[in-house]
Design goal:
The protein is mainly α. The chain has helices spanning 2-27, 34-43, 55-61, 63-82, 86-99, 104-114, 127-149.
Length: 150
């Protein structure tokens, strides 16, 4: 009986590993910026339940593994973002804005007014991490708006 439990545990771990590989290879690697990945992953989180939902991953690996893999990826991507120097974060935001179809000035105005970027942090982020993230991003937004007005 213990051998069977060990096999099931290994199989479950292998499925999670494959789910993570699929997510990164098929989806996240296609996004050119870390900020784009952060935004995408946050968009997969249900605002009411906090669970991450991705139809393809759920169909192949089940809802629980899909949620777990997406949550871990979101936390990893957020951590990666926080470790970027401010200049790299600014460059990432510029690249991200170049890829969205809306006018940069309009996007910056909307972000300054509605602050949708505040919803991009994973639930596991601590207060200090969220403070660092938002203060850096707000500084970058101010810099970019100043650049546009010059």
């Amino acid at each position: 009986m213990p051998d069977h439990i060990g096999i099931d545990t290994m199989r479950a771990g292998g499925d999670r590993d494959r789910a993570m590989e699929d997510l990164w290879e098929r989806t996240l690697s296609q996004l050119t910026t870390t900020f784009g990945r952060l935004s995408y992953l946050a968009s997969l989180r249900n605002a009411n339940s906090g669970r991450y939902q991705h139809f393809g991953l759920s169909q192949i690996y089940g809802e629980d593994d899909a949620d777990r893999v997406l949550r871990q990826s979101h936390e990893r991507t957020f951590s990666e973002w926080l470790n970027f120097p401010l200049e790299s974060q600014r460059d990432e935001i510029v690249l991200y804005l170049d890829e969205v179809s809306e006018d940069r000035a309009s996007v910056l105005e909307t972000w300054s007014t509605l602050a949708p970027y505040r919803n991009l942090a994973p639930a596991a982020a601590g207060d200090a991490e969220i403070f660092l993230y938002t203060s850096d991003l707000e500084l970058i937004l101010d810099l970019l708006q100043n650049e546009l007005s010059v």
